[in-house]
Amino acid sequence: MVKRLNLNLRARTMGERVLRRAWEGVLFVGIVLTVAFGAFEGSFTQNIRTTVIDGLAPVLEVMHRPVVTTREAINDIQGLWYAHDENTTLRGQVAQVGTLRQRVLELEAENQALRNLMSYRPPGMYRFTSARVVADASGAFAQSLLISLQDAGDISLGQAVLGNDGFIGRVISLGRHTGRVLLVTDINSQIPVKIRRTGHRALLVGDNSRRLKLLYLPADLTLYPGDQIVTSGHGGRLPPSLPVGVITGRAGEIAYAVPTQDLSRIEYVRIAQFHLYAGSQGGLPISFEAR
Amino acid sequence: MREGMTDGMMAVIPPLMMLLAILLTLLPINLGENTTPHLEVIILFFWTIYRPLPVWVVLACGVLMDITSGVALGVYPAVYLLTTIVAQQLMTRLKSPSLWHLWGYFILVLVIFVLTLWLMVMLSHQGFVAWHRSQLFALGLTVALFPLFVYPLLSLLRWMHRHGYQLQSS
User: Fold this and answer.
1) Which helix (H) or strand (E) holds A218?
2) What are the C-alpha distances in Å from B115 to residues A188, A198, B136?
3) Looking at beta carbons, which residues of chain A come within 8 Å of B78?
């Protein structure tokens, strides 16, 4: 045990201390009032934010490397440990996927033929840009990720961000080489969605926990645990039919869900550059991308 | 000579440690519940007691935390400022605190920190923000990590004290 250390704080006169406390108190109240009136928020402060994050990104990347190396090493060891069991499971899955692939190709061909017959134009096109997560700014009262971008020029605010298993959030700020992703679980996140099984529309809102809330569902709608929630595409900013979450339960008018993607273990993300009715943009139709 | 050196070192080390702690909270280390401990509060508390940071440094750290965590500007500066005031007020009663004393006082300061942060987030959000398991998890984890960070720091200060370095500026 460390021996006790005298604090020996620098002696101040009573007057000095009172003045200092008064100054700090005034400062505190001033900041609180400014936050209450939102006076710090604007394009100027937004520029400061993005500039600082751009400057910090290389430092974060360097600090991030040992974390990635350690995580990969742990995954490797776990992989070796469970290799036999995983192999057996994967063989079973490969057999299933083969059958499903055949069925998907048949449906795709049929779908394409019907579209040609009706001169159908797909509702939107999108491309993907990959980005690496350099910082997880998810704290107790905010849920966001910082991503490193090769070139942020192609990305625009509001675009959908996907993990391996589905939609995770939207781009809310962009610097030159970094961006911030507001996770679907953040209290400020509101996403127009629909229930895939029934087609009913709702608003998916976060509350800073892992649980998501579905608002504005019809009172008489029966939901089952496991029902899939996908983006509805309403508003035109997000592509439709991206998987977002699954229903876990319902209490009164509010239904609850969890994200399809484990948000605590995201290393890479894809940004869907969605262009509504943008055949001239040269992207791929949604059905092709999904495949 | 040593006093000058200590003054220089001590003016740089606490802000640097704060910066490092803020950056550490951003690393995607999944310790559970998709949240991170309040490491920077441990550092802030420690240096507030042994070598109080200038107000502008506290505010600058707060602004940096606002920027990196994505909350409204002004939330963390206010919370850090109040945390330092509370920590200083509490510690004026103690002359030579042990690690256990520090730990006990830290828990109190941390609770005040988290409650103030919660109030400030609600103020900036202009609405109620519910508490969840992740907030409590972050709080518990921070309390558990406290000795891990403070014990080496206390040892360092003890060593410096033994070798005639002055902790407080002359």
Assistant:
1) none
2) 20, 42, 11
3) 28, 31-32, 35
Contacts of A287 by beta carbon, 8 Å cutoff, 6+ apart: A108, A111, A122
Across the interface, which of B34, B77, B95 has its CB nearest the CB of A7? B95
**Would you state the pLDDT for residue A287?**
41
| Six token digits for residue B51 | 């070598």
For tokens 């360097």, what's the residue?
A62
DSSP assignment letter at A280: G
For residues A270 and A130, the answer to whether their CB atoms sit within 8 Å is: yes
3-state secondary structure of A241: coil
Q: Which residues of A touch B132 (CB under 8 A)?
A: 207-209
Q: Which of B 57-86 lie inside 8 A of A, CB atoms?
A: 59, 64, 67-75, 77-78, 81-82, 84-85
Give tens-digit pLDDT for A175-204.
888 999 999 999 889 999 999 999 999 999
Phi/psi of residue B31, each to 5°? -95, 5
ipTM above 0.90, yes or no: no
How far is the C-alpha of A96 from the C-alpha of A98, rounded, in Å? 5
Indicate the residue type of B73: L
